Amino acid sequence: MKKWLSILKSELSLILEDKSILLTCLVAPILYAFFIGSIYSEKEVTEIPIAVVDFDHSNLSRKVSQLINTSEKVSIEGHYSSLEDAMYLFNNLEVQGIVILPKYFEKKTMNLDGSHVELILNNTKFLTSNEINKSVQSVILTVSGGVRMQYFISNNIPVVLAKQKAQPILPVVKSIYNATNNYGDYLLPILLILILQQTLIIGFGQSVVHEFKEGILTHVGEFNFFGFIQVLSAKSFYYIMLYTAYFFVFYKLIFPHFSLSFNGSIFLHLLLSLLFITVVIIYTILFASFFKTMIGWTEVMAFSTYPLFLVSGYSWPIDAMPKGLQLVANLLPSTPYFKVFNSLATEGAKLDNISNGFVHLLVLLLVGYLLLYVRFRFMKQKIKSQIN
Fold first, then answer.
1. Distance CA 86, CA 99 (A)
2. Which domain holds residue 68?
3. Is residue 284 within 8 Å of residue 250, measured between CB atoms?
């Protein structure tokens, strides 16, 4: 016990003395949470300025412009007969999009020949470009459906049947994990959790690399596996407590600050978070044991953030990935965690609804522990062979 407490005290000294670990684990989580969060603070954009270039000057083209302008998401700043005039505003960022209604738009549309409406978007701001695209598409689909219905009515088809023929397939959208149908509300909670995951991996990994290079684990060959785990448990104690507290602060303060949905039992959330932190720490120890320098570890892990997020299945269904990536995805702690977190935070799920996610994390914990044992045996064998 004295040895465990001695290692615990030594780890605290390392955290306070090493500025890299100190900044990564104590400053970065809160700083990045508000920095990233501020990008999505205005999660719903309205009255996005756009321009309309009308080459047709017909009643239908003017009606389309009026309908687009009635959308709460966009606001038409001007109508132009020249694309050059509209492009001048677009290039100076005075408008974020340009709708181009071609010549003979009304004639071709009323004759059901079809007419191509072009849309130029500023894609540097994906939230605004996405809203412009959806608003314009909604208006064009509504107008085209109305034109088709009038055509069928003019051919003596009953109104009800004409409506069905004009729009034979009606979309029914039921949001599950994105109840507000808002990209910011969907993405930001996971980005906040990703900040905690990556700062934990980088900061704790630096400590582990330091321990293998300069600390007590320099002579890892003198330890048995129990002593090896004892050292690592003492080193990880502060990080487990610190990041459990971070998760609590994020859930209770930062999520409400950004008006993010957070339901479900706080006890289940913290239990899930504690299990997730433990699994992340096990795998961090395993992979950090292969690195020789703290800088090398930091560089590799810093560049791993985006790939880990993409493979986790949050932004792209795991079933749609290649078989190899599916295997990698299911070995990542973030994969079951993100899934269970969504069920808890958005749907307010109960324990029996998320038991599969908990079991998945427990299996990953067991696999990580076994792999760490194999890695320990390999390191001891390597040291023995070097001595001999």
1. 10
2. 48-166
3. no
